[in-house]
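Worked problem 6 (solution included).
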Amino acid sequence: MPLPPDVAPLVRGFANNSFRYLFRQADNVADLIRWCKPKIARGIDFSRIAVQPETFVTPGFAELESDVLLRAPWRIGGDEEGGIQVFILIEHQSEPDELAIFRAARYVLQIYDRQEKQGLRTHANTRGLRFDPVLPLVFYSGTRTWEKLPSMRQLVHQGSLFGLLIPSLEPVFVNLAETEPNVLQKRIGTFGWVLWLIQQKRRKEDEFRDVLRQVVARVDKLHAGQPGRWEHLLWFAHALVYHARETEEREPLADFIRATVRQAEQPEVQLMGKTIAESLIEEGKSMGVLEGAIASKRETLLLLLRVKFKRVPAAITAEIEATQDGQQFDAWLKAFALADKITDIPFQSTGKK
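Solution. The predicted structure is:
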């Protein structure tokens, strides 16, 4: 049983792709928006929501955040009235980032800019152009305290003086770690239970097993009416077990998932666990040498920076630690050889490209 095309990125890059995998599923997005923006949710035709191919995250932030753009028809009083675009910016870096609001605003404006360009493909000018609304949502999956996003006004010198002259955006903000389990279980539908599983993934083995049992039992109820979603979420549960739990726990927990679902579906679920395990073994063999080379370049670059410049800013260290691109390390090392100061090296956090 090969990995389905949409599951392969999840299994092979869980840290960066786990929430993208979940938010590319219409029912999960529907559950979330019905909770945080119920009035808007009533106007969205979730049965016809479609994932858009675009991504707006710049390369320097690809290891720290990801995004999903979806489009759906917009209905008022039962009649279709254009469309709506849902933009989800997923912040999976460990520390809160006050500039996330700036990047979210930039990405949303790029979406409106694309709408304008699309309009000009069929019209001679922009007279009468009206944009489809964009619903921005920033989802923070880290564990640190992050109560809300600052306003753009707070990020600009003399912001109170310039007031409305400063661009403004107030995305929906969700901090998974600080959302009460009671809210996840009772107000966000089946997707809320899956988010609870993610929230509890580092609990002690017996505690996690109990959470896993409850979540799988909840997901298993989908089989009769939503078999595609049932399969989608069980693939996710297996991938989370293999990536978040200790090695000795993985196989027993995969067997536990199989035993929890209905008897008739146990063989199919067993194949899910087996396929993921085999894929990770093969991936490990092929990636081991590459990861070792990248780790060596990372260690070398950090050592050289600390020897030459004494102090390495935390933002640069975080960017280096998060990077998995060997070619990027080669470029940094070449720039280091010619650099007189650390800002001469093209780190994203210094504004260099």
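Discussion: The beta strands are 50-51, 65-76, 79-91, 134-140, 172-175.
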